[in-house]
Amino acid sequence: MFGFVLVLPLMLIIITGNLLRSRGFYSERDIKTLTKTLYWVILPPLLIRTTFISGREVFVQIDLLIGLTLAYILTIGIAAAGAVFLYHRENRERIAVSVFSSIRANNIYLGFPVIVLAMGEAGLKDASIYIAVSTISFQIISIMAGEVALSGKFSLSGLGGILKRLTVNPLIISCALGIGLALTGLRALPIVIDETMKLMGGAATAIALLALGGTLDLSRISSIYNMIKATWQDCLIKLVIHPLILWALLLALSVPEPLLKVTVMLSSMPSAVNCFIMAKEMKMDSDYAADLVASTTVLGIISIPVWANLLGII
Known about the structure:
Distance between the termini: 10 Å
Shape: globular
Radius of gyration: 19 Å
CATH topology: Na+/H+ antiporter like fold
Number of domains: 1
CATH class: Mainly Alpha
Strand content: under 5%
Structural class: mainly alpha
Oligomer: single chain
Order of helices and strands: HHHHHHHHHHHHH
Number of strands: 0
């Protein structure tokens, strides 16, 4: 029962963001400003602080990196096989969405709020370790897989472009800064800086959920049955198969239990909102990507508390 109580406050804030957008309080430009502020201003100090607190532990989580990478590859392989041979067949733009989005979870807008609400500061620390360990391989593997599915070939120039974009990614830079500070031997950040970062990070949850609500088109809820019917195979891979694969691999690799739970919980989140944005930029089927984001988000009302109970984080 508490699993659903965990989700309800999050959904209420998401709905509030959507209502504010639909009633004209937020414009599209306002939503872009919210997401930009979150991405470039609020999340970086949050990740720097929590990654610094994690210290050198990031460097000893080799088993986590191996487990994540194998899970990404296996999940993408399953998504590609299903899309090519079963449900999308000759539709290369839609196949690319299936492959690309199969591992891209909504960690920032939804995952972090869930972890903070369920596990507090301790959960946030493990979530930061997960972000620091996974971000580079996650971005490279998902984007390259999508491009290969779309074009039918591997491109070194495409890989170079991805690597170039990663060097200016604020999340990667923040994790690198936090790890670098920890390696200096500094035991604690100056109290003024630490409290400033803590206050900035405290704003992340509400802003992320409001921005998510303003981004999603919940006015299409009346057609959600048709959307889920059209996307259920990819929803199953994203919400069930991927986290199951990751859970099994991390258990086999003996990843510490708290970190395992947070990692699997974050991997079980609905599809990231940026799947739609990136699908549009990469010439994939962006309409299908939008339906997939909406479907997994609605189904997340059920899947999030189920996973929270299975993992024992509540």
